[in-house]
Each structure stands twice: as structure tokens, then as C-alpha cells.
Amino acid sequence: MANAKKWLDGSGAQLRLFVPPDPKLGGYVRRELIAFAELQGIGKPEVADFVAAIGEALANAIEHAHTREPIEISAWLLGEDRLFASVRDRGVGFAPSGPDRSLALPDAYAERGRGLPIMRRYSDLFSIRSAPGEGTRITLGCHIHRAAGPLPQHVAS
Questions:
Q1: Separation of alpha carbons 77 and 84, rounded Å
Q2: Is the separation of the CB atoms in 23 and 127 below 8 Å?
Q3: What is Dmax (Cα atoms) for the chain?
Q4: Cα distance between residue 21 and residue 3, in whole Å
Q5: What is the tens place of the pLDDT at every residue in 42-57?
Q6: Per-residue b or e along 120-143, where b marks 16 or more CB atoms closer than 10 Å to that residue's CB
Q7: Alpha carbons 35 and 19: distance in angstroms, whole number
């Protein structure tokens, strides 16, 4: 199933998950991300949209990577007020088509095309790096307000 590692080190709190490309694991990933944020004194309401954006990145990796290799989801704090996450697959990748900074959602009846605009809207930083045959990494960042300092380390197996 899924493999999770959580740790604290000198550079701050970090979370790393490796999950197979299975849509059924989206809920698990979202729960782990929220638990990680809460352990750092960040409330669920503050990160709900950000976690939704990460969920969109995971859904894209599951659908478009075309590989059975695990997908890596990482989250980390930078300083006291910035939360970052990345979703990396080792799939087919793609050649970048140029900067598309559109936040526009597709027509209400469109069945596709909402993932990237949602990721952009729900994050303060958004980046995609991809190359044919090498996979894709989406990195997102947001400014946060911590209610309290980090809680004791939590380790999941």
C-alpha cells in the first residue's frame, strides 16, 4: 500500500509519502498532509485549500504519468510562515509548452481542465518541471500562520 515517513531535522519539519498511482489513496494523502500541518500548529481550515491543490497535483500524476512507479509527495516548512509541497512522478513527462499563467476555469460543463487553475488559485507559489521520459514535479507553496510551535515528532509506518 502506501509508505510514509515523517521526521524532524535541523532544517525543520518534513513529511514524505510514497504512494502507488491509485486514485483510492487520495484521501489517505490528504489526511496525512492535514495531520502533518496540525502537528506543526497549523489549523485544518488554514490549509484546506492548499491540501486540495496538492490533491489535484496527485490526481494529475495518477492520470497522466502512465507508470506504476510510486508517486512521491513531500511537504515541508520553510521558516515560520511558509509551507511547501511537491508531487513527483517518474512517468512519461512532457515537453513544456510555454508559460500558461491562466487562472481561468473551463466552461462549467467541461469535464476536464480544472486541475492546474485550482492549483494556481490555491497556492502562493506554483511551479511545474517536466521532461519527456523523466517524469513531472509540481511544487506548491503557501504562506501560513502557526497557532503554536511544532508538536512532538510523529512517525507513521
A1: 6
A2: no
A3: 48
A4: 13
A5: 989 999 999 999 999 9
A6: bebbeebeeebeeeebbbbbbbbe
A7: 17
Q: Are the beta carbons of 141 and 83 closer than 8 angstroms?
A: yes
Distance CA 140, CA 54 (A): 8
Domains and CATH numbers, the chain: 4-8+13-143 (3.30.565.10)
Range of lowest pLDDT (23-32, 89-98, 143-152):
143-152
**pLDDT at 19 > cutoff 90:** yes
Q: Which amino acid is at 69?
A: E
The closest of 58, 12, 66, 67 to 33, measured between CA atoms, is 58
Q: Under a CB-based contact definition with an 8 Å cutoff, are residues 69 and 134 in contact? A: no
- Of the candidates 150, 128, 149, 151, the one whose C-alpha atom is nearest the C-alpha of residue 140 is 128
Res. 111 pLDDT band, cuts 50 70 90? low
User: Dihedrals φ, ψ of 121, to 5°?
Assistant: -70, -35
| Count of all residues that appear for the chain in the document | 157
Mean pLDDT in residue range 17-35: 96
The 10 Å Cβ neighbour count of residue 68 is 10
Looking at residue 51, its amino acid is V
Please tell me the predicted confidence (pLDDT) of residue 157.
45
